[in-house]
Amino acid sequence: MEKNFVEELRWRGLLHNIMPGTEEQLLKESTAAYIGFDPTADSLHIGSLVQIILLMHLQKSGHRPIALVGGATGMIGDPSGKSNERNLLDEETLAKNIKGVKSTLERFIDFSGNVENSAQMVNNYDWMKELSFLEFARDIGKHITVNYMMAKDSVKNRISSESKEGMSFTEFTYQLVQGYDFLHLYNHYNCKLQIGGSDQWGNITTGTELIRRKVQGKAYALTSPLVTKADGTKFGKTEGGNIWLDVKRTSPYKFYQYWLNASDVDAENYVKIFTFLDREAIEKLIAEHKEAPHLRILQKKVGEEVTIMCHGKEAYEKAVKASQILFGRSTADDLKNLDEQTFLDIFEGVPQAEIVKEELSEGIDIVDALNEKSGFLKSNGEARRALKENSISVNKEKVKEGFSLNNENLIADKFVLLQRGKRNYFLLRIV
Question: Fewer CB in a 10 Å sphere around the end CB: N or C, the chain?
Answer without folding.
Answer: C
